[in-house]
Amino acid sequence: MITRDSDALIDSIFPGIHGPTPPPNYFLERSILAARNGNVDGLNDNILNRMSGERRTFISADKI
């Protein structure tokens, strides 16, 4: 799908994202490709704001 309307794109790729927290496999077959990280950051914020529930941040480590 090619569009300049990010809301329509998100609604098309992630239907029902407004409801209860989707199961982990919900995201396995869905992705939005973007050429620039700035675009990705904005899309991620928009998608996360549509999800219900409390936001949590998980910190990762590159070494054990």
Q: Which features does this protein show?
A:
ATP-dependent DNA helicase, 64 residues
Kindly describe this structure.
- 34% of the residues lie in helices and 0% in strands.
- By secondary structure, the chain is an all-alpha fold.
- It has one domain (6-50).
- The longest helix has 14 residues, at 37-50.
- The N and C termini lie far apart (40 Å).
- The model has no long low-confidence stretch (mean pLDDT 86).
- This is ATP-dependent DNA helicase.
Radius of gyration over C-alpha positions, nearest whole angstrom: 13 Å
- Summed up, the helix count is 2
Largest sheet properties = none
SSE sequence, one letter per element: HH
Low-confidence parts, pLDDT < 50 over ≥5 residues? none
Anisotropy-based shape: globular
What number of structural domains do the residues give? 1
The tally of strands reads: 0
Overall mean pLDDT stands at 86
Oligomerization status of the protein chains: single chain
Strand content: under 5%
* Class based on secondary structure composition and strand pairing: mainly alpha
Measured between the Cα atoms of the first and last residue, the distance is 40 Å
Helix content: 25-40%
Organism: Mycena rosella
Protein name: ATP-dependent DNA helicase
Secondary structure topology:
Blueprint: H1 6-13, H2 37-50
Q: How would you briefly describe this protein structure?
A:
This protein has 64 residues and is mainly alpha-helical.
